[in-house]
Amino acid sequence: MTRPPEVLPGVGDDAGVAVESAPAQAITTTQAFATTPALATTQPIPVTTTQPLPALASADLLTERARQRPPLPSLTGGRWWAACAVFVLHALVFLPVYPFQKSELFRHIHEWIPMQLGAAGVTFFFVLSGFIIYWSFKPGMTKRAFYRRRVLKIYPTHLLAAAAFIVVASVPLHRAVVWVPNLLLVHTWWPKWTTVGGLNVPSWSLAAEVLFYGSFPLLLPLVMRIPTRRLLLAMGLLMLFIVALHTSYFLWVDGPKGIANAFAPRLVPGNTSPHYELHASPAWFVQPDIPVAKSYWLSYNFPLSRLPEFFLGVLAARMVIEGRWRNTSLTWPLLTLVASYALTWVVPVNYKMSVLMLAPMTAVVATMAARDLAGVSGISAHPRVVWLGNVSFAFYLIQFPVMVVVTRYLIGGKEFGILGWAGFSLLCLVVSTALAAALYHWVDVPIMRRFARAKQR
């Protein structure tokens, strides 16, 4: 006798894809795993109000709309801005344009565009991922279907981008440690694999996403036990845990203790641009080990350290759905986010990369969702920006291979100033966007349509 598949609250696509609203009613702690016909056939509550609502919108109306789980275009568009933040940082660091990268002008620019700019984009992705996974909650989906959708969403695009990097960087396949951990998205679980086996550098965050998706069905029952009135308290306690965790890394793990933004490109001698940025250089792939500061690795790359950020997003989604977050004004969330970003200049590295920005980033995500529910328009909800948000996942992964090609064939062996760097950065932006669009429309969408349909009981 075979065991029937275990049912869990399922999800749709990631935040980059507009998710069809499920005909589901409000989720309560007693309904979390309900699969009765009554729940499965409940019709959406009709919504007739289309006028924008005030900054503190009617709780009843927002909750009514949230129960239908409509698409959230502002959050999809928001992915593009986060991806752009990552791109700007990568273009500055990964395009070895000499002598510009060795100039005083570059040093001043990098002071204002430090590592934590890209880290802020990744933090947004992690919180948003938790929010959208819970928002796309579809009663009746099995764990197997949930995991199948997550694998199909992540791995095809990741594998194609990794294959492109292997080809353009001439990665030595005889050294399995260089590429196998990255292809399997397990490389950030061990410091050596994180560096030597980093391969397509941006893909490190996908190793954390794999953990997020793997843990979601297992920890969801605990999340659902939190009473609605205690959601804000739960988020506060989770934030305190995150601060305590990174403080322990700072106090008791070897690594930098100062507040300096000690991040810079890895440079080689001379004023002639190299044909390879060091992360894509043959010299990189033959190293037996490339040390990384343990406290930095634990705070930034280690998947378990980033897991609470995902569940902050999950709790934020519950806050919006259950009427505990009604604010639709982005003014204070954005001002607080800017202030927290500014504070990263005066704290140790363990707090620079995500901790200070987490609470305001979560508020920004929840507010953008509330704005969509309230019918408040904004630039992130513009159709063109939403389209860019849809292709942002592929854009995030393909940008580094594109930079490797541009470096190898256009930059290497020559000398350029800031205008040269700006021109090559623009070229990488255009080419990466075009390739991302091709990956999204010709790989991601067809695969999800063909193979990722959830099987309902």
UniProtKB/TrEMBL annotation:
Superkingdom in the source lineage: Bacteria
Gene Ontology biological process terms, A to Z: polysaccharide biosynthetic process
All residue ranges annotated as the Acyltransferase domain in the record: 74-436
Record-linked InterPro entries: Acyl_transf_3_dom (IPR002656), Acyltransferase_3 (IPR050879)
Protein name as annotated: Acyltransferase
GO MF assignments: acyltransferase activity, transferring groups other than amino-acyl groups
GO CC annotations, alphabetized: membrane
Entry's transmembrane regions: 80-100, 112-137, 158-181, 201-224, 231-252, 330-347, 385-406, 418-443
Keyword Metal-binding applies: no
Keyword Transmembrane attached: yes
Alphabetized UniProt keyword annotations: Acyltransferase, Membrane, Transferase, Transmembrane, Transmembrane helix
